[in-house]
TrEMBL record:
Keywords: Aminoacyl-tRNA synthetase, ATP-binding, Cytoplasm, Ligase, Nucleotide-binding, Protein biosynthesis. Residues 1-23 are annotated as: Disordered. Pfam families: tRNA-synt_2 (PF00152), tRNA_anti-codon (PF01336). Residues 13-22 have a biased composition (Acidic residues). This is aspartate--tRNA ligase. Belongs to the class-II aminoacyl-tRNA synthetase family. Type 2 subfamily.
Length: 514
């Protein structure tokens, strides 16, 4: 891998802060932090047109090679794209010096998730072996976000090798590692990172966008949410259950190198909940994504997605909404413009804001207590409290669609990331409309030791989710996501009052036919 050209274009990179060595391991606590002066960039977008730009990229350490004591070459992989990063050589390391940062880079285990901040430059020769051959990054800062275990069960290069290449090598008297199908599936998280698998499942995703098909498994070996509310069955002599959610496998897909994962598919809950808003089987709309600076990035996706969805329904489904309203009268959920003033008691509709309102859990608790509602300290909100809070939010902020953030850790699932400033709280949120929960989401724990500890604390058999926990031992980026029931969205948007109206063939604790 050749060194880069020192003749960069554009503005010089920002000066290093005196107390920042410019490289090292990031302490456990979410892996989210800012690097002033460097803009996030996608590896696939790096080309000659961005030469001279100060960028920050996050990806996997695909390959590392040291050249002497002061220079190392790091190939960074993001999805199916790769770029060469030049570490040291007069270009990086901050106060630690070239030798220090080069030594740190050379010691990175393959597949570790790293952050590179540096300047895009044009190499003297094409950076062979990378997809972005016309450019390289002169590294100024290098941080390890998540260490992969040094001895990987399979390597991405070996898994990417074709059977034809193995056969040709054997005929020539050479020995190349061949990864068999069973071993690939045993370590699928790593296998998914090969260019071929990235391409296969991106093509499949395009098909899913048209057919709304589901890819995450619905038959699993253990509970995906914790607790006993699962439908148990025999799977060829093995105990199994129907998946409560695609949660665990969404996260494993993120670990497999996919920046964002979307799921539309059936979800099964064995809860004995005979309410107006629960079903034993429903269609789940789920999303998981790698996050960079803050878990509010997930909230922003929820905001844009659902505001756009509501706008679309109001614009394109007016006749259908009118037909429903004739049989099941309801107040439409409409976009609210700040300059309009309404008489609260005579409103013929309820509203949502162009930018969804965020409220912290503690503020919501204060609002309820001030209204005389008894709520348990650091506890979850019951149905009545949620309904009342919706009324209070509507009266104070003039919106019926809002997010409640930073829930106590004790009331969230075991895989929820605790807040770095106070672990009693979590990087989580719920979204409400008409005083009822419609969406739940959070940043997930990507540190296997923390994940195991929190699962044990919830009474979950860690052995039953070993494959899930182990997925984070091979390098995992900070990530988060959310889930929502399709039927509940329809029920609450249309004010139907009962989720069974929104299900074609509802399945509740008492109904199995037709």
């Amino acid at each position: 891998m050749p060194t880069g050209d020192d003749d960069n274009h554009g503005d010089p990179p920002p000066e290093e802060e005196e107390d920042d060595a410019g490289y090292g391991d990031v302490a456990v606590g979410g892996g989210l932090f800012s690097v002033p002066g460097y803009e996030w960039a996608d590896v696939a977008a790096l080309g000659r047109d961005v030469a001279g730009r100060a960028v920050r990229v996050r990806g996997a350490a695909h390959a590392v090679r040291a050249v002497g004591r002061r220079v190392a070459f790091l190939v960074l992989r993001q999805g199916s794209s790769t770029v060469q990063c030049v570490v040291g050589g007069g270009g990086g390391g901050g106060g630690g010096g070239d030798a220090g940062v080069a030594r740190f880079a050379a010691g990175l285990s393959r597949e570790s998730v790293v952050d590179v901040a540096g300047v895009v430059s044009l190499p003297r020769e094409p950076a062979r072996g990378t997809t972005q051959q016309e450019v390289e990054i002169q590294v100024k800062k290098l941080y390890c976000i998540s260490k992969a275990t040094p001895n990987l069960p399979i390597s991405v290069d070996d898994a990417a090798r074709s059977e034809e290449d193995v056969a040709k090598a054997k005929a020539a008297g050479e020995q190349l590692v061949h990864v068999g199908q069973d071993k690939r599936l045993d370590f699928r998280v790593i296998d998914l990172r090969t260019p071929a698998n990235q391409a296969i499942f991106r093509v499949q995703c395009e098909i899913e966008n048209v057919s709304l098909a589901s890819t995450r498994p619905k038959l699993i070996g253990g509970s995906s949410e914790g607790g006993a509310a699962v439908f148990k069955l025999d799977y060829n002599g093995q105990p199994a259950c129907l998946a409560q959610s695609p949660q665990l496998h969404k996260q494993m897909a993120i670990c497999g190198g996919f920046e964002r994962v979307f799921e539309v598919g059936p979800v099964f809950r064995a809860e004995d909940s005979n309410t107006h808003r629960h079903l034993c089987e429903f269609v789940g709309l789920d999303m998981e994504m790698a996050i960079k600076d803050h878990y509010f990035e997930v909230c922003d996706v929820v905001d844009r997605l659902f505001v756009a969805m509501f706008d679309h329904l109001n614009k394109n489904c007016a006749k259908e909404l009118e037909a429903m309203n004739r049989q099941y009268p309801f107040k439409p959920l409409s976009l609210h413009y700040q300059h309009f003033k309404f008489v609260q008691t005579n409103r013929l509709f309820i509203s949502y804001l162009p930018k969804t309102l965020h409220i912290e859990y503690d503020e919501g608790i204060r609002m309820l207590k001030e209204a005389g509602v008894h709520v348990e300290a650091m506890g979850d909100l019951n149905t009545e409290a949620k309904k009342k809070l919706g009324e209070l939010v509507q009266a104070k902020y003039d919106t019926d669609f809002y997010m409640l953030c930073r829930y106590p850790s004790a009331v969230r699932p075991f895989y929820t990331m605790p807040c770095s400033d106070d672990p009693r709280y979590s990087n989580s949120f719920d979204v409400f409309v008409r005083g009822e929960e419609i969406i739940s989401g959070a940043q997930r724990v990507h540190v296997p030791e923390v994940l195991s500890r929190q699962a044990e604390a919830r009474g979950i058999d860690v052995g039953s989710i070993a494959a899930y926990v182990d997925a984070f031992r091979y390098g995992a980026p900070p990530h988060g996501g959310f889930g929502v029931g399709l039927e509940r969205v329809v029920m609450l948007f249309c004010g139907l009052g009962n989720i069974r109206k929104a299900s074609l063939f509802p399945r509740d604790p008492r109904r199995l036919n037709p």
